Amino acid sequence: MFTGIIEEVGTLKGIRHGQKSSVVTVGGKKVLIGTKIGDSISTNGVCLTVTKLHKDAFDADVMPETLQRSNLGALQMGGRVNLERALQLDTRLGGHIVSGHIDGTGSIKEYRKDDNAVWITISAGPELLRYIIEKGSIAIDGVSLTVATVDSGSFQVSIIPHTGAETILLEKKLGDTVNLECDIIGKYVEKLLGLSPKTQTKQSNLSEAFLQENGFF
Fold first, then answer.
1. Strand pairing report for 104-114 and 177-182
2. What residues contact residue 148 under an 8 Å CB cut-off, 6+ apart?
3. pLDDT in tens for each of the 217 residues of the chain?
4. Is 111 helix (H, G, I), strand (E, B) or coil?
5. CATH code, 104-193
6. Domain spans of the chain?
7. Are 174 and 108 in contact (CB under 8 A)?
8. What does DSSP say about strands 154-159 and 117-123: parallel, antiparallel, or unpaired?
9. What class is the 8-85 domain?
């Protein structure tokens, strides 16, 4: 598990493509401190397992599923990535609980300066927007952010100068792809209540009485 608070920006130092999967070599410094083979490092929000350690980098296997669901497959040599080590139980949770399992991708639609902050508008499909709510949490390329607004085709976040300086979010160009991980709680609630897109009907059984009976009030 991760917090979505980026520890450093690393670079892609090597990539070896297999038939469907890849092995990446990611350069970093801070995230290598105390790291062992088998540990997890969030790379642009994707949970990768360290398979080999170098002096200033680590190797990780990237499965076909990961390449299909994330922007890691589009990375070029020297590309910059957000990095975070897995959280420890004595760590302050400055962001929110992030699993490192990407739900899908969105694309940068607009940047807008607002005094010292920058508003970012990201377009996403309905299969992701159903889990994105105003004032809720979202991880964008592994960065924990608060959702400011949501409409039928996109959502907005606002980032402070520190976040802009310590991550790669403001390095993206319009149209670039970003990894998205929606808040995990909403997905579990939907599953337990039988409200997934495959089973949900036009008339929902969810009511105040139902929630009271199941201990929500």
1. antiparallel
2. 119, 134, 135, 155, 156, 157, 158
3. 999 999 999 999 999 988 889 999 999 999 999 999 999 999 999 999 999 999 999 999 999 999 999 999 899 999 999 999 999 877 777 888 899 999 999 999 999 999 999 999 999 999 999 999 999 999 999 999 999 999 999 999 999 999 999 999 999 999 999 999 999 888 888 888 887 666 554 455 666 777 777 776 6
4. strand
5. 2.40.30.20
6. 8-85, 104-193
7. yes
8. antiparallel
9. mainly beta
